[in-house]
């Protein structure tokens, strides 16, 4: 995990797909659920809903704050669990996409997390960004082992 001076989680990945392809996996529900979640309700415009059932039982939600086609997506994030440690919309995720030859450099920054929540979220982003790399490049990431039956 890389941490910025303010404690934000920072990740970088090179994806073997053009920025417009990667972008679609951040804003289209059917493509979102190929790499993260079982269902997704997305309205990719400032103030629009971001809601993903990540594991079949754990719902993440927030709002899109900024959407620049093929280059940047910013949304708030939190968990809809009773008495949760990271309430819906309480943290911010910024994803930028930069063209890199025939691929894309994705940079992600997750800010606003309490210290005790950073490691688990960093592990989660490692897991899901590796699935995004596969899905956006046209490969099937396979069943998500974190999805719970029920």
Please give a structural write-up.
The protein is an alpha+beta fold. The protein is built from 3 helices and 8 strands, in the order ββααββββββα. It has an 8-stranded antiparallel beta sheet with strand order 1-2-8-7-6-5-4-3. Strand 5 and strand 6 form a beta hairpin. Helix 1 (19-27) packs across helix 2 (29-35). The mean pLDDT is 94.
End-to-end C-alpha gap = 31 Å
- As residue ranges, the low-confidence spans are none
Order of helices and strands: EEHHEEEEEEH
Tell me the overall shape.
globular
CATH class category: Alpha Beta
Tell me what the CATH architecture is.
2-Layer Sandwich
How many helical elements? Answer: 3
- Helices and strands: which structural class? alpha+beta
Task: Report helical residue fraction.
Answer: 25-40%
List keywords for this structure.
150 residues, alpha+beta, 8 strands, globular
List the helices and strands and how they pair.
Layout: E1 2-3, E2 9-15, H1 19-27, H2 29-35, E3 39-42, E4 49-53, E5 59-68, E6 72-77, E7 91-100, E8 103-111, H3 115-136
Antiparallel strand pairs: 1-2, 2-8, 3-4, 4-5, 5-6, 6-7, 7-8
Helix pairs in contact: 1-2
